[in-house]
């Protein structure tokens, strides 16, 4: 019963945040929702007892969200700005994790290097919502906006991969910078290639089904819903990054219909 009450309170908070966002447009909606969430936590007190597997959270929520955001990227602008996007989305995230990690470990030696790297990986990625909110307040040049929007999605994936490696090292107590770097690029590149391969496989399946004359809305919608979960699970089972694979498949956007019909 407590879970039902908490769910209803969260839905009410989301509804209320949409109203407050219209009344106070200069405050971003995520900040409003955080404040309302804090109010719910204080109201519920110790009644909140939810056991949620973090791996299930990744595949159930993060994977489809990143897939949807990747689909909506400006693909032409992404390709034109691929160098700055990759340098920011991958290079800057890794650099941030390393700099913050070494700095925190130096300032607070009781914090292990792996745990410090996990903190750096969590702080490294920029927020796509912040970019969207900033664009409403300030006129950002189109190229700069496209770069920020593109890298804010890709760096979510690279940040999650970095964070997972750092947490695994902190839990096991063994950490090798060279080994972690090699594993990161294996997971990143492997996930990217698996995402591309599965994306084209999805495209082949959709084309084959259409060649049979099947234009059923239920099939196409459910197939689209299944794609991020299947891509994530397959890539994860092969030892690569499921998150990177989902982003790569979403950027391809090959399973979406190209034309409109009645």
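^ structure tokens above, recovered residues below v
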């Amino acid at each position: 019963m407590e879970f039902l009450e908490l769910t209803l309170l969260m839905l009410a908070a989301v509804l209320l945040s949409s109203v407050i966002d219209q009344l106070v447009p200069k405050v971003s909606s995520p900040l409003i929702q955080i404040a309302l969430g804090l109010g719910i936590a204080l109201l519920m007190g110790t009644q909140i007892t939810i056991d949620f597997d973090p791996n299930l959270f990744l595949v159930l929520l993060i994977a489809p969200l990143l897939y949807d955001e990747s689909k909506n990227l400006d693909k032409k602008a992404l390709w034109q700005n691929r160098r700055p996007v990759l340098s920011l989305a991958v290079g800057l995230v890794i650099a941030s994790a390393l700099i913050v990690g070494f700095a925190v470990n130096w300032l607070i030696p009781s914090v292990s290097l792996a745990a410090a790297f996990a903190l750096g990986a969590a702080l490294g990625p920029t927020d796509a919502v912040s970019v969207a909110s900033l664009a409403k307040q300030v006129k950002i040049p189109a190229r700069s906006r496209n770069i920020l929007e593109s890298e804010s999605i890709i760096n979510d994936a690279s940040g999650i991969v970095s964070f997972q490696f750092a947490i695994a090292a902190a839990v096991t107590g063994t950490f090798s910078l060279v080994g972690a770097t090699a594993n990161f690029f294996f997971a990143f590149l492997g996930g990217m290639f698996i995402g591309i391969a599965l994306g084209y496989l999805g495209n082949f399946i959709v084309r084959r089904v259409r060649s049979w004359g099947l234009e059923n809305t239920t099939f196409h919608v459910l197939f689209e819903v299944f794609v991020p979960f299947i891509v994530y699970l397959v890539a994860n089972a092969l030892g690569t990054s499921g998150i990177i694979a989902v982003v790569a498949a979403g950027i391809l956007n090959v399973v979406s219909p190209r034309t409109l019909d009645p």
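The mean pLDDT is 79.
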